[in-house]
Amino acid sequence: MQVTIDGGPLGIDDVVAVAHRRATARIDPSVTDRMAPARAVVERAVASGDVVYGVTTGFGALASTRVDHDEAEQLQVRLLRSHAAGVGDPLPDDVVRAMLLLRARTLAQGHSGVRPLVVERLVEFVNRDLLPVVPSQGSVGASGDLAPFAHLALPLIGEGLIRHDGVTRPAAEVLAEHRLEPLHLEAKEGLSLLNGTEGMLAHGVLALHRAEHLAVAADVACAMSIEALMGSARPFRAEIHRLRPHPGQAASAALIARLIEGSEIGASHADDFVHAVQDAYSLRCAPQVHGAVRDTLAHVRRVLETELGSVVDNPIVFPETAEVISGGNFHGQPLAFVLDFAAIALTELGSISERRTDRMLDPQHSSGLPAFLSPRPGINSGYMLTQYTAASLVAENRVLSHPASVESIPTSGSQEDHVSMGWGAARKLHQVLDNTARVLAVEMLCAAQGIEYRSPLRPAPGTAAAVEVIREAVPSLDEDRPPSAEIERVARLIADGGFTRLATT
Of 93, 104, 312, 473, which alpha carbon lies 20 to 30 A from 253's? Predict the structure, then answer.
């Protein structure tokens, strides 16, 4: 599979495919002609000595400082060096690949004024898997993700560090080994390698891909819990949800209804109104909660897709009028908001899941299941402690759901006096995703065990298939054993889309 960079938008699936090494990237031949007019504008500005931000001036609070013609190129290199101030653990490889790809896409649009050679080198790094080492902390998401992008760009000029085949070495050594000459940056190219939202965007695209798997897995987990708890199928009937036609709610209800259809467990009490006149909210209201999460993620998707076709550089070159205009398209606020929204939504997905887990483990609320799903309560504690784990993760998620996007803090001598903090929103979203996957894994482990305790009554084909997927990774609990690795195993199944595939077949 190849993803083509032609100056137009990329799709979310394109970015994920390259980030996960299921695809390479290629540059459409039309990109050279597309980029040429803007480059010509920049070269004329330098030759004539026009005042152009970042080309013949300093940056940020130094925007009023003129730079001589013969220093314009030095300015670009020194910009990369001075802005490489990131700290903390390196970013994961998939995020770095996505950043390289998205930076190439932005520059190829023809509004940045850089040479095609810069785009070619970014794509070459992607395809050879030469991954700049980018520290994970240091961006406020205002002029884009400046510090992370400086670390991403330094290896292009033979500086900084590259990770290749899992080994980190000086960029100059790796480039020499691959017979690549370090780039000699020209006017505006250093600035264009730094300004933009593609760092937040890379995080957001990969997070959305994971989050959509979690939303489906939550419906599967809920369907399994309904079976284990002998819950009612009535709340999932389509006529209820037509009266409140939120798309996500309808989709969630339809999936849960399909998964529990044909259940002997459900049929055994379908007419027993004494058994369950009204199930607990965590069962009965699942479509309303899960559906709201789905709708939030749909909004996130729309914003990310808009950004995947946007010009986010600064200053922006307009070849048709030969203007270079300083604006604010690099500001990360649209992304910061939706990254925070996603964290809040996923936290609620984990919160309602933990409540279903608690009901299955509590003999007062589990419709006859053994206490804590233990084979021999007393001598065995069963899955008691898994609920503790889920509760701790939900509590952590609630702290992480405090929005980063309201925490603006001025930078650059108050020239950049309002920032988005979108990078911070992106970083904590990944932890929320990890935590929520584990909370759902706990529910699935407990629900699978609970369903098996309902034997000889058989579950629905849909939930039986989910139990089978789990049992391929984790055996039934016949006596106490450490559940930690088993939670992680099921969480990986969720994150890898195992239950999405099940739900769509």
Answer: 473
